[in-house]
Amino acid sequence: MTAVELLVNGENVRCKAGPTTRLIDFLRDELGLTGTKEGCREGECGSCTVLLDGLPVNACLVLLGKCDGRSVLTVEGVSDGTLHPLQEAFIEAGAVQCGYCTPGMVMAALGLLMRDPRPGEEQIRMALSGNFCRCTGYESIVKAVQLASERLIQDGP
Question: d(Cα 37, Cα 102) in Å, to the nearest integer?
């Protein structure tokens, strides 16, 4: 077991990690952050996307021990009690259907908007390309990210 200290959604967390403890298992089973979904267990579907030091990663592929001293943001940490403009845009654009992929999509899109507040459609599609959705056909998701980008630029930081 290895001692691990990390920041999860702005809060310091200390724990012990076995050599095979995955980030997703720790988030869901130990911290109760069940917004991060597990779909494929192989890093193919994107349902488990979280931000690690501001960059989207598949939490099913990240070992908890590799998170020591790092910052993790899950979908639960996006909102401060009111919906984030990106979450509002997903609802408004009809980008939420069954909802299983939604947390991962939101996190991938947020990672993009943090790096590039004015992404073009091609950049949005590329950022979301690691996230699989069976319900929406992606058009509404792309529109939601575009809408959120416009609103975030308007409102400022």
Answer: 9
Q: How far apart are CA 49 and CA 13, in angstroms?
A: 19
The CA distance from 118 to 145, in Å, is 10
Contact at 8 Å (CB) between 31 and 8?
Answer: yes
CB 145 within 8 A of CB 123: no
Pick from 25, 54, 24, 40: which is nearest to 130 by CA? Answer: 40
Instruction: Say which residue the tokens 């939420």 belong to.
Output: 96
Cβ pair 132, 44 in contact under 8 A: yes
**Residue 94: what are its φ and ψ, rounded to 5°?**
70, 30
- Pull the structure tokens for residue 30: 């130990």
CB atoms within 10 A of CB 91: 12
Pairwise CA distance, residues 109 & 38, whole Å: 18
CA distances from 61 to 24, 42, 101 (A): 8, 7, 17
Q: Which residues of the chain have pLDDT under 50?
A: none
The pLDDT score that the predictor gives to residue 33 is 98
- Integer Cα distance of 9 and 84 in angstroms: 14
Q: What's the per-residue H, E or C state across 83-125?
A: CCHHHHHHHHCCCCCCCCCHHHHHHHHHHHHHHCCCCCHHHHH
Predicted local confidence at residue 85, as pLDDT: 96
